[in-house]
Design goal:
The chain is built from three helices and seven strands. The protein has 156 residues and is of the alpha+beta class. It has two domains: 36 residues; 116 residues, Alpha-D-Glucose-1,6-Bisphosphate, Chain A, domain 4.
Length: 156
Amino acid sequence: MKTRTTVISLIQAMATVAVVAVTAPAHAQWVMAARHIAGRINEMTQDDQTGKPAYQFATVILDAPANNVFAAVINVVSSNRAVTIVSRDDAALRLKVAEGSKNASLNVIALSDDTSELLIAGTAASSPSDPSVSRVVAAILRVCADMHKTCSVGAQ
């Protein structure tokens, strides 16, 4: 019986080593790809039934630890008196804010020890002429500036 348990443990250990051996290079390649696109802001708008923008989404990958990115987000939000923090989850690196009738959620995701992704989703402005149409991109640019990172919209 003890031999059977040892064999099962050995098989499990070998399976774990095989999985790590296969996925470690893939993870390393993902991190290299993420670093290649660092600073590139991607955005998307979700329209309502009438075709007007309802929600905006923007994301950027930064060469910085997730905790540093979240600290920059908190710094930028705290320095804007028009913005109210609705909820804050330091452990999950999530923040919900409001500015008048507009809401936004900010989330920082650690891709590696020194590479992170910042995602902002928020309600869109009511008209295309409103300068807040790209407010989620403007928010990412403020965080990038606070961190002394070069960020730009789209392809680099």
